[in-house]
Amino acid sequence: MCPYIRDMPKQHIPGPENLDLPADALAINLVKFRTGRKWSQAELAERLAAHDLKWVRSTVAKVEGREREVTVDEACVLAFTLGVPLVALLCHSGVDPQMRITPQVTTSPHYVWWWMAGDYPIGEERFYFAACQDTEAEGERRVPGLQRLRTLVRHAQTLAGTKVLPARDRQTRMVRQLVDIRDSAKEIADRVIREADAPKKKK
Predict the structure, then answer these.
(1) How far from chain centre, in Å, is Cα 28?
(2) Is the dihedral of CA 101, 105, 110, 135 positive or negative?
(3) What is the pTM of this model?
(4) Of all helices (H) and strands (E), which one includes residue 16?
(5) Confidence bin at 203 (pLDDT 50/70/90)
(6) Is 201 helix (H, G, I), strand (E, B) or coil?
(7) Distance from C-alpha of 181 to C-alpha of 174, rounded to nearest angstrom
(8) How far apart are CA 1 and CA 91, in angstroms?
(9) What pLDDT is attached to residue 202?
(10) How many Cβ atoms from other residues are within 10 Å of residue 203's Cβ?
(11) Which pLDDT tens digit goes with each residue over 13-41?
(12) Range of 21-30, 132-141, 156-165 with top mean pLDDT
């Protein structure tokens, strides 16, 4: 668990079996994004065909009705065609208080989104950030603290947009989070400046 993120749960616990898994979220979100585009099921199938995904209207209907599973490759084509991040298909928007990552592990959709996006480890943290894109991992090695700063900013964005907390509580947490962001950014900047100035002083 990341100790530097305020107000995050201490553990992720087993939840009721009726909570949605990512496959369930995909079916719900597919309907939401398709109707948001004002596309019929048939029109979406036609657009998918342009990317060699041979679906017909009945295929879309079965996926939306949770009667057909979706492969990883199909999910990528769906996300690309709809113009949304893949994580937006697999995760609830945050309106629902909980969802399942596995049949046994339940947590907030916010944390599921961050986990899928590579911002927040759930469960074992040892290899999580090391598995990020090479440039991000190398960036964190060269400038330690950038990953932490990004996660703090992500949490602040979620706090600003949440409708669950009362306004006063939200503002209080936002202030604390923004102070953390300011302090973390200043610490990183000061360290980088010192390191940049070090060779000049040697000369």
Answers:
(1) 17
(2) negative
(3) 0.72
(4) none
(5) low
(6) helix
(7) 10
(8) 20
(9) 62
(10) 4
(11) 444 456 789 999 999 999 999 999 999 99
(12) 21-30
Q: What angle do CA 123, 26, 79 make, to 5 degrees?
A: 100
**Token pair for residue 22?**
């990512």
Radius of gyration of the chain (CA): 21
Residue 14 to residue 89: CA distance in whole angstroms:
23
Residue of higher predicted confidence among 84 and 128: 84
Q: How far is CA 180 from CA 149, 151, 194, in A?
A: 9, 11, 21
Phi, psi values for residue 122, rounded to 5°: -120, 125
Report the b/e string of 85-101 with b at 16+ CB within 10 A.
ebbbbbbbebeeebbbb
Q: State the DSSP string of the chain.
A: --TTSTT--S------TTSPPHHHHHHHHHHHHHHHTT--HHHHHHHHHTTT----HHHHHHHHTT-S---HHHHHHHHHHHTS-HHHHHS--S-SS-EESSSS-EE-HHHHHHHHHTS---S--TTTGGGS-HHHHHHHHHSTTHHHHHHHHHHHHHHHH-SSS-HHHHHHHHHHHHHHHHHHHHHHHHHHHHHHHHHHHH-
pLDDT at 160: 85
Report the pLDDT value the prediction gives residue 14, as an integer from 0 to 100.
Answer: 47
